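Researcher: I'd like a candidate sequence for this fold, 115 residues long. If you have to choose between options at a position, lean toward the conservative one.
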């Protein structure tokens, strides 16, 4: 089993920045893709950004140019640097890790952007 612990959420004004971190623990060998998803009130959970163990990244169109995902493979820790935040970025952000055929989720961290 893999446990994912997220940190870095909070309250920020429009145009501000936040950095999310996700650190896995437990049986972390074989983790490949890690990523961030979010769920805004009334919406379904959506992919924000993902990164493979080889560093291949993908982003949702809505965050391209503003968010940057990175990964420390030695620690299997993934980060999401969020700049130029907008009120529509307000959501609970979830870390996800894929290990072989298994998918693990963190508890989520709230990001609130005020106008």
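Model: Candidate sequence:
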């Amino acid at each position: 089993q893999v446990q994912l612990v997220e940190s870095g959420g909070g309250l920020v004004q429009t145009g501000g920045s936040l950095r999310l971190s996700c650190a896995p623990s437990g049986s972390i060998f074989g983790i490949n893709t890690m990523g961030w998803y979010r769920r805004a009130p009334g919406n379904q959970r959506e992919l924000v950004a993902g990164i493979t163990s080889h560093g291949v990244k993908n982003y949702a169109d809505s965050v391209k140019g503003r968010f940057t995902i990175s990964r420390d493979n030695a620690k299997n820790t993934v980060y999401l640097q969020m700049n130029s935040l907008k009120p529509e970025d307000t959501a609970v952000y979830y870390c996800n890790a894929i290990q072989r055929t298994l998918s693990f989720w963190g508890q989520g961290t709230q990001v609130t952007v005020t106008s």
